[in-house]
Amino acid sequence: MADPIAPENLTAQRIVVLDFGSQYAQLIARRVREQNVYCQILRHDLPAERIAELAPKGIILSGGPSSVYVQDAPRCDPELFNLGVPVLGICYGMQLACEALGGKVDHTPSREYGPAKCTVHDDSLLFRGLPEQIDVWMSHGDQVSAISDVFKPLAETNTCPYAAIAHRELPIYGMQFHPEVTHTPLGGQILRNFVLDVCGCEGTWQLGDFAQAAIEQIRSLVGDARVICGLSGGVDSSVVAALLYKAIGPQLSCILVDNGLLRKDEQVMVIQEFTKHFKTDLHVVEAEDRFMETLEGISEPQEKRRRIGHAFIECFKEEAVKIKDAHFLAQGTLYPDVIESGADLDGPAATIKLHHNVGGLPEELGFELIEPLRDLFKDEVRRLGLELGLPESLVWRHPFPGPGLAVRCLGEVTREKLKVLREADSIVVNEIKAAGLYRETSQSFAVLLPVQSVGVMGDARTYDNAVAIRSVKTDDFMTADWSRLPYDLLARISTRIINEVAGINRVCYDISSKPPATIEWE
């Protein structure tokens, strides 16, 4: 067996992304990590001195919704351009770099959003190996109208004379288009050129090494103590459990809270998968009655979530105190959770959401927290799961929300409604699997609507419930497009639901993308 990889060596070569409010900041980081290079998202106003302490191999300035010429526009410390570290500005980031170094940015007559043809004039390191003309994705209302003598143009479109630029002496680059999105097909190669050729990174971020380092860290931290892990059957908790089991084996105790909001046969499946892969201590808490009582009469989505979260903590606490010598609690916190909760001191300052995995429960229980996945994105967690030997059926399982079917049962949640929804949802998933499209879709499920409509079944008039089918395809769950499922598959799903699930006489298909809609309905 190879010697353990020191955790600091995995992240020794890093690229940092300064976030100026871009919806794509996390996507930039993920694209960099696809080159096996660690990438960290930082707040845009982090002092250059602090950035230097992190010793990045390169700096990427993200896009953002602001205009650089507005007085209160977010800006970076201009001293970062003097650190001698390669810089790549994307969209707003390019405009910021140009303005800081003597260029001019103006509002364009018409906002440019969508595909464009980009002609490359200079095959610098940034565009090495790319054709003269490439397809790119634009999303901006401002653009660089003039550059100072220190810059040279690299590429243009019909409406954007400075689609990409480079400093004549320093390793500073900018591009008006977005290389991180899939709509720029060769964007990954551009980022690869920047990360490997310009910044000189060598690809030390390997998930196999990460697993080995994490296992060694857990063993060193835990010693002879016992660790509790909440198990849900989802990818994140399963990968955490796999890491812990590899590290400490029988010192691991897992708790599964059956809140009555799980999918059909979920508890049985989780227990089967768990006992197949982990020969350790499993506690199952039967808590359906408690959750149904706390949800009685409640229809407001956020209040449902709050009550479910509170009830979960109470159930978990009551079971956890029964486990002897437990000193640690393991959670499946991921890097986006850390970013969006504002839990990283150097990360983006604005709190987007208070994530259920970040804070709260460990403090209430008095346990020390272990978050072995807090540096990983979702796609990295899946790959890590495969590295650890988990089956593809578990690793590629569609995500399931923490509040369970409660956020897919619109309005008040009752046992009767959950029974109807559970059966309809099972038909949706099973038919998509039977059609061989489960891996082609990212999340597919049924939603029970608080709507009744007239129907005819046999010779009788009905006035029953409507169900919406939701199926999306996405790489990152930050944006998503609705799945173009075949009509014959949709017809089978609809026919089965109406024929087999009592209480439903109408099936609809949700063809909304995210944004403006969200993936879940609540």
Shape: globular
Runs in which pLDDT lies below 50 for 5 or more consecutive residues are: 1-5, 350-360
Classify the secondary structure makeup into a structural class. Answer: alpha/beta
* Amount of helix: 25-40%
Report on the biggest sheet: 9 strands, mixed
* Strand content range: 15-25%
Separation of the first and last Cα atoms: 48 Å
- Measured on Cα atoms, how large is the radius of gyration? 25 Å
Query: With helices defined by DSSP (H or I, 4 residues minimum), what is the helix count?
Result: 16
Strand order of the largest sheet: 2-1-3-4-9-8-7-5-6
| Beta strands, count | 18
Mean pLDDT: 88
Folded structure, characterized:
The chain is of the alpha/beta class and 522 residues long. The model is unreliable at 1-5 and 350-360 (pLDDT under 50). The two termini are 48 Å apart. It has helices spanning 7-10, 25-33, 48-54, 92-100, 187-198, 207-222, 235-248, 266-277, 288-295, 301-320, 335-340, 361-365, 378-387, 392-395, 415-434, 487-500, and strands at residues 14-19, 38-43, 58-61, 87-90, 104-120, 133-146, 151-156, 164-167, 172-175, 226-230, 252-258, 281-286, 326-330, 368-370, 443-457, 460-473, 481-482, 504-509. The radius of gyration is 25 Å and the shape is globular.
